[in-house]
Each structure stands twice: as C-alpha cells, then as structure tokens.
Amino acid sequence: MEKNIEYNVSIIIPVYNADAFLERTLESIIAQQTRGLTYEVLLINDGSTDTSGEICLQYSLKYDNFYYIKQRNKGVSHARNKGLEIAQGEYILFLDADDLLLPQTIYHAITTFEKYKEETNILAYPLYTKEGNDIKPHIRNANFRQKNRSGLYNIGEFPFLNQCTMNVVIKNLDDADKIYFNTSLKQCEDALFNTQMVLTMGNIAFSNNGGYVYDIGHESTVDKFKNPVDIGDMLLQFFENLINNALKHYGSVPAYVQSMILYEINWRFLQNVLFPFHLKEPGYAEWMDRIVQVFDHIEVHMILEQPLMDYYHKIYFIQTFKQQIIHKNDSFGLRFFSKDEHIHTLQHVTIVFNKIKKIGEELQFVGYIKAPLLDNADDVALELTSEQQDYKKTVWLRETPASYYKSHLQVSSFLGFDFTLDLRQEAEFLVKVKINGVFYKTVPYFEEDIIFKKHIQSKHVVCQKPLFPIKKIRLRSLSESAAKIGISRKMSLPTNRSCTRKKGRGTF
C-alpha cells in the first residue's frame, strides 16, 4: 500500500506511566527549531494507570500536530509498531517518554538524511546520558568520529558502530518492506530493530549535531530485564534473531552483526549479568550449548578486535567458546593459537607488586605474575638468584584473586608470589620468570599502596625511613629477562625530597 506522506518526520513516543517526565519530554520537541521542516508527534498510551493519558490528551488538544492514541497495555514494542502503522512522515524518529531531544536535533538529522537517503534506511545521531542534572556524551559517539563525523558509514568498513539504542531516525518504508519491532523480546528489541534496518542497505548515516538524552536517573526497562533470572532466554533469542536475519540478507554473518553480539555480551559480562547461574541442570548446559552455537558465527579475529572489551576478557571468551587453544615455542616467543588463528605471542610478563613490607630484618615482597594464557603453558616458575651470595631459589606460586581480573569470574591465571629478602646483607637479587623452560623479560608494576621515598639524584628507590634504617633498594626491569632488586648499605638523603610512588609501571 502506498504511504500517505503529510510531514517530513513522525515522532513516535510510547507512553506508560511517565507522568513525572512526559511534559519535559514533549517540551523538548516543541523547543526544536525545525526551519520549515514539519513533524507530527504520535503519543501511544500503552495502558498507563497514572495521569500520562491526561497529559497526552492535553497536548493533542493544544497542538494540531500532536496525536493521541490509546491502547491496552501490550508493551513498548507493540506501541512503537502501532506508531509505525499510522506514521505519515517521510522519516520516523523514536523518543521514549522520559528522554529528551537536544535543540535542533530534528533539523540536522533530517537534512543529513536527505543527503544519503538513496544509500541508507537509517541514520544515527549523538547519544547522551542524564543522571540528575549531569548530562554526558555516551562513549559510543566516538564510533562515528572516524570519517569526518557526519556522513555515511558502510558496515563493512566500520563494523564496530554497535548502534543498539534508539538515537536513530529511519526511513518510512512502504508496507511491503516495513520492519517492525519483535514483540516477543522484552530486552534488546531496539538493537534487533536497528540492525535489521542497517542490514537492508549495509550503510548507516550519522548526523553529528543535536542529540538524544537518555535519562538513567531512574529504573528503566533495561534495568528491569538486566538480570538473567528475569530475561530467561530472551538474550539468546536476540542473538539467534540477529544471526538468522544476517544469514537471510547476506548468506553469512557480517562483522557488524558479530560486533553487535560481542558488545551486548561484553557489558553484561562486566556487570555480572551474562551467565544464568540460577539455572539447574540440564537448563544451564542447554543455555551454554546455545551460546556456543552463537559463537560458532563469531570469528576469533572479531573478538580480538572488539573495542571497549578488555584484552584478558577477549582471551577468556576465546578459551571458553571457541576452539581449544594450543601453544608453540619458536623464535618469535611463546605463541598461542585457536584452531589455526594466531591469538597471542608472549614476549614479556608483568610482575605486579601488591605489597613491599619490612618484617623484622627482612623485606617482604607480595604480588603476582601477570600475562595472558599462563594456564595454557606447561610450566611457569619465578626464580630468585644472587651471585654475591651464591643464592638461588624457586619461589612457590599459587592462584590469586587477581585472576578474577575486572570480573566476577576467573578470566585468567595470575600466579601469586610471597618472598622475603634479608636486609642485613648487601647483595643484588635477580627476579626471573621462566615459562616452558625459557626466561622472559619482566616489567615491574606497583599497586597504589606501594609507598616510597625517591632519591632525586639517582634511579634508586628508597623505602620510607620509619620502616627501617635507610637502605638503598633498587628494583628495575632488565633487558636480560629479569628484574633486579639491590640492597646496599646506609646512605644519606636530601631533606624534603619525598614523594609517593603512583600506581603504574616504572624503572628505578
């Protein structure tokens, strides 16, 4: 059926119990400077039980281009779909009843869309988050800054755009081509809809002006359906729908869709709401089988290239969901592979120091060895040696809580150490890490509570005087695959030359 176009843009607002925010939202539309562009506002009341309906009616009576539609409560996707059915704008903009549009958003979005309407069916514009009076740009805005900001982005060239939120304008397609929201999903329906729109032409336009302000200062649907207990298998349905739609359009799963899945997995993993640990067997095993099948469509290099995902988490996902990882020792170092794809080359390890403390006449060093895939190595050892004392010791290593790196799950194997050195003798000690029989270069890293006084005239680190009689302590990374700890006799220090060693790497 041919569309009846009366406006430049239709603004669809699903409304459900939003009387605390709705007027503010509508006023942000009225304040738009559209410069002759026309718009209609479709207020879809989804069975509200507060005064939202009265507010909708009031605005529809006051403004000829505001329309009030009431339906029984069916959910946000039903409400948006109702708006899609009756929209009379050439373009369609979505706005939730508790969010805002920044000034001139409509004008810039539509004028930019006009430039690229033959090449895309969807345009994105900047997203902001609002908490109280604090409004900040969303980190994903930077995804669109790689090509002179406003413009047309091909998803083959820019696969990491991850346009999963509703800061979009779409083309009002003919009925035969129109895409609707999946009403069976209570979560991720936005991302699925956007991805389907992107896949129709493989491009997405971006307008760098204006903005969608997403109010996070109160509970939203995203919060309500974040917990695995509440969403059931909706997350897997979302992934499977993405994959099936991609296969329908392309015959394969393009990088853009793979990245969209990884983006969703990443933020849920960081917030510990990915895995349904509440499920008993066989339910949990069935869930894991389905997500493994999802990862069958995700290439290893896409995991490694995914932005905003921590490197150790990337390795964890490869280990957990992809082919078994193997390692090879060769002239390049210790190299790791998933199937035939190279994923990491180990060339150095980081020695992290959690604590350096005097105990009697000894100095205690506590920390761990940090490097990817140590659990895949055959043998890992920490050796202390001193030529002056003819001393050699292999330090016992153990698993540490640090293996739960930026996560509630163990994502790696960071092996902890705890050793002491005698302060009564002058000597130099080498700290070496040996993996599969080969010594690797070490880089020291200090946690925040490692406090030093620093001798300004040298590269020596000197522990604070109240701890013990001042002795010179050297700790540095060496090119010959070791860290050196040197203990020397008493020395004088310049006065008022103290500082706190900040968290980070260092050569002293």
UniProtKB/TrEMBL annotation:
Residues 10-150 form the Glycosyltransferase 2-like domain. It holds the Pfam family Glycos_transf_2. CDD domains: Glyco_tranf_GTA_type. InterPro entries: Glyco_trans_2-like, Nucleotide-diphossugar_trans. It comes from the Bacteria. GO terms for molecular function: hexosyltransferase activity. PANTHER family: GLYCOSYLTRANSFERASE (PTHR22916), UDP-GLCNAC:BETAGAL BETA-1,3-N-ACETYLGLUCOSAMINYLTRANSFERASE-LIKE PROTEIN 1 (PTHR22916:SF3). Belongs to the glycosyltransferase 2 family. This is Chondroitin polymerase. The lineage of its organism: Bacteria, Bacillati, Bacillota, Bacilli, Bacillales. The gene is kfoC_2.
